[in-house]
Amino acid sequence: MPAWETFGTVSLAESDALTALASITAGSVDAIIIDPPYCSGGFTEKDRVNASGHMSVRSLNWFRNDNMTTTGLVWLLRSVALEAHRTLKDGGSLCVFCDWRMTAALAPALESSGLRWRNMVVWDKCFMGMGSGPFRPRHEIILHFLKGKGMTGSSCVGNVIAEKRVSVKAKRHATEKPQALLETLIRATTPEGGTVVDVFAGSGSLAEAAISTGRRAIISEISASHIQTARERIKQKLTSSPP
Ligand SMILES: C[S@@+](CC[C@H](N)C(=O)[O-])C[C@H]1O[C@@H](n2cnc3c(N)ncnc32)[C@H](O)[C@@H]1O
Questions:
Q1: How far is the CA of 207 from the centre of ligand 1 (A)?
Q2: 42: pLDDT strictly greater than 80
């Protein structure tokens, strides 16, 4: 059982994702919005080109960081999706950030949890990333699943969301997601006063967005240093703009 701490409308714990989800009450959550490691072979295009495709899951510290194999990520996230199915309310959403390379393997594995695959949302970062050759990357994918036949959320948001990335100077985490993007995802999936969960919380960006939008948040993260960043960030946000 993780040691949950509460700060205003946010519960936070240092924990592995599956352990954290297992401690959440069944049918209690409006949306789960997660940004797991991408397993794309590294943070940069150079890392990806140099990554070996032949490393076994066992030889890697496969629950952490970007060097997980495709199989490792699929197994981990299918287990997460099963827990999502248990903890979500009927009509609740699971949103999963992923690299385009992973969608073909990941979406069917997540769907096999019993959740309904409903859409693929594109985060348009507005500017191209580094790289050579045609079609330099400027987007990431968010897979959207629903529990049951119902649907909670707003129909005012399209499936392409344009928001600039967090600047290098402002970043508290290597893969930090922008507040405006997270606020849009929360408003689209979670009613006011509802509860949103992120068990790969990194710097706690989703919790900050939940406070800004008047939602409750439950977040956890495996790294002690990242969860400390998240803790400080939430305390600061609650002090500067209490819910
Ligand atoms: C892509 S980052 C999330 C960044 C976050 N969205 C932000 O804006 O700061 C993924 C995070 O998942 C964490 N992580 C990796 N494996 C995990 C696991 N099994 N359980 C919980 N957290 C994990 C990593 O430490 C990393 O901080």
A1: 14
A2: no
